[in-house]
Amino acid sequence: MEHVLKQFINKCDSAIQQEDFDTLLNYYTDDAILVVKPGMIAQGKEEIKKAFIAIAKYFTNSLVPAQGEMIVLEAGDTALVMSETLLTADKQETQFPMARKATYVFKKTPQGEWLCAIDNSYGTDLISSSL
Amino acid sequence: MEHVLKQFINKCDSAIQQEDFDTLLNYYTDDAILVVKPGMIAQGKEEIKKAFIAIAKYFTNSLVPAQGEMIVLEAGDTALVMSETLLTADKQETQFPMARKATYVFKKTPQGEWLCAIDNSYGTDLISSSL
């Protein structure tokens, strides 16, 4: 059976594609971190929403995220997901890689609901960048 | 100032080098996961201790872990650390990479103490392995 976090990430990707950022923000913890690009972090729902609006605009409102191979490491109420993240967009050239090995950290609420705490699509590639 | 998690990871590395596994296990959550190698996971303190004993033996009791560049993404009581992990040992040849881009997930207890929940020294390289 597909891991519940795979379905969860698919829902996030759909919300990004539809630019339904209010729905998307429900999937994040209040103090979640989004790595917008190497060296730029958004923290908290307000900053993350602004970042997603800017990202959508950058990709001329045509961004479609999808996931390839995915590995879930689940330790109680904490999970690390490593995923091939594949971005497509109408924009011809971007300064960012469109195929990434992402790292996502999720927390389970006392109600049993998973939420994204750390959204880092750049994965360990950040190590060689100055963050 | 050096991030508290850098100091924490240094303490873990010292405990591994000294093979002081009882001290080391204090740094993990009860349901922590250790990726022993691609395809093999230890979960919980008992399994993790056995794994560290086997790892020490594999490296002929000469394993010295150290960290290079490290990035900490902290979101409230959850943190993702990405780190260049460098292993040295007297053993001449091993089947495992000695320089890795590791991913470690930490949880902060209500008492403000960080504990390791997910210890994956292989980072996103697991994606191309069958875990």
TrEMBL record, chains A, B:
All copies of domain DUF4440, residue ranges: 10-115
Name of the protein: DUF4440 domain-containing protein
Pfam families found in the cross-reference section: DUF4440 (PF14534)
Family matches, as InterPro entries: DUF4440 (IPR027843), NTF2-like_dom_sf (IPR032710), Steroid_delta5-4_isomerase (IPR011944)
Organism: Peribacillus deserti
